[in-house]
Structures are given as C-alpha cells and as structure tokens.
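Hello,

Our lab assistant flagged a job as stuck in the queue for most of the afternoon. It eventually completed. Since we weren't sure the result was trustworthy after the delay, we are filing this so someone can double-check. Below is the sequence as submitted and the structure that was eventually returned. Let us know if re-running is recommended.
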Amino acid sequence: MKYYAVKKGRKTGIFTSWDEAEKKVKGFSGAQYKSFKTEAEANAYLNGAKKTTSPTKTHHKSHKKASTGRRSVQPDGDIIVYTDGGSRNHGNHRGGHVKASDKAAWAFLVQTGSQKYFESGGEFGATNNRMEIMAFLEALKYLKRQGLQNERIGVVMDSQYVLDAIQKGWLAGWRRRGWNKSDGSKLHNKQLWQAVDANLRDFPIIRYYWTKGHAGDEGNVFVDHLLNQTMDQMGQPDPQASPAVTPDKQGPQPIPKPQPIKQQPTPRQPKPIHRKTAPTTPTSVQDIENSLKQLGLFDEDDD
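-- returned structure --
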C-alpha cells in the first residue's frame, strides 16, 4: 500500500489511493504532495520534513543532472524510462541536411522492479533530434497501452533539446502560436511534437532527469547500444524511394517494422510489463542478447 501525503491542496492530509489524492491537488496552483511507502514517512513529510513539490500536469518539471563521473543518475519513480535517439550522418558538413541514405534510430527502455521492456526502430534520412523525439513519444505510447500513465514515472535522457521543449515552456508556446516558432518560422517535426503534447496530458506525475550521453549511465548506455544495433541491421535504403533531403518537408523513409518476439515475464499484478525484442529472426535476437551481455546490461534472470 502507498500513502499519498498532500501538504498543500484543496484538502490536506494522508490518502491511501491516488484517485482520492488527485482530486485534492489536480488543478490547484502550487500543490505540494508526495507518495510514501509507510504512513510514518507520510506523517513526517506533513509535519515539517523538507518541502518537496511533485510534478503537475503543466509538464514544467525539474530534472537532475548526472555527475561527470561514471555513475548513473538516481531517478525517482515506480517506473523508470530511458530514451535515446541517434543518426549516422556520414560525410555531411556541419549544419547541412542529412542524406537520404543516412541511418537513424531510436530506442527506449522501461524498468519496473525487476521487469524490463525495450524497443527500437529506425529510419533513413532522419535527424538526430527527430529520433530523440520519437524515442520519448514511443515510450509514452507504450506506457499508455499498458495503462501505466497514472504511475510515478521518472524519465532519463541525454537530449537537452527535448527536455528544454518540455520544461522551459517551448511546447506550450508552439501550441499557442499554431505550432510555429516565436519568430514565426516553421516548427520542425511538428506532427511529432503535437503527438507528444497530446500524450503528455494523460501523465500527471513525470519527473525528468538529464544524463550525459556515453558517460557510463547504465540505462543510457543500454538504449544507445540498442539503437546502434538497429542501425547496424538496417541495410541499405530502397533506391526507388524518393530521397528524404529535408525530413520536415517530405519525411524520412521508414524501414519495415519486424514482428516482435514476445517473452512472457513473471506476472506482476495488476499491470504486467512484457519484454520484447525488435529483431525478426532467432539469430538476430541472440546477437543482440550476446552484445548486451558483454556490456553487462542484460540479465537472463529478468524473464
């Protein structure tokens, strides 16, 4: 059982269900509340513990930066999500458009207790920023499909661009201006940002955390390795397809999505999370698992 302590809201006190506590804080300006595993901790919070303001639906939530060492960030939440996107823009000059043949991919990892779910996808001719947005969006869509949007969620990413759009009010500003930038110019990846905005409205409790990419954070290294595995398996783009010179005008060329192989984990009531792998053949699945084991990021006992 969890205890939800409301320090500032329509009604203060300790509640044993989120549905009841949410009514006391939803839409209340400056609401202060937090969940605890024990009633004693909840009472301590109400009676003078250090003030903590939980995230609200405004989506302007604080994030923590990782240290410069090789330690992982310590995100808070019942569900922890890692997202990452990347591209291989070989031969492009700085500031130039990606080529239609450039590979790009996204990946996310969802952890809850000992259970894990990860997924990845790729496109040709897409920018790094597009893949970062895709990773976050696909993670949100997965959580909604599992009915987990009301859980306490911590999201860890190395994309300052995506974090700033959410936390600094850029997303709300784009919406007010009809999805244009402040100078009136066209917003790149408009449809993706609209989808992110629509999905975020269903997530009342998300905390965001920034981590330095390729700096030893285990979850970040995992999704980075996964998206690179996806790009390694993409092959070559279809020469008959129209080139995606500027993804914002024409859209990148997607690769066919393989049918995932499902592996049933130990049931977790009431909302089990299943773990899938993206490759389509047993050989590809084994290759990915072997690579992840070498990095120490795959535990055979998780299934």
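-- support follow-up --
The delay was a queue issue, not a problem with the job. The result is valid. Residues 244 and 250 are 6 Å apart (CA to CA). Residues 3-47 form a domain with the Ribonuclease HI; Chain A fold (CATH 3.40.970.10).
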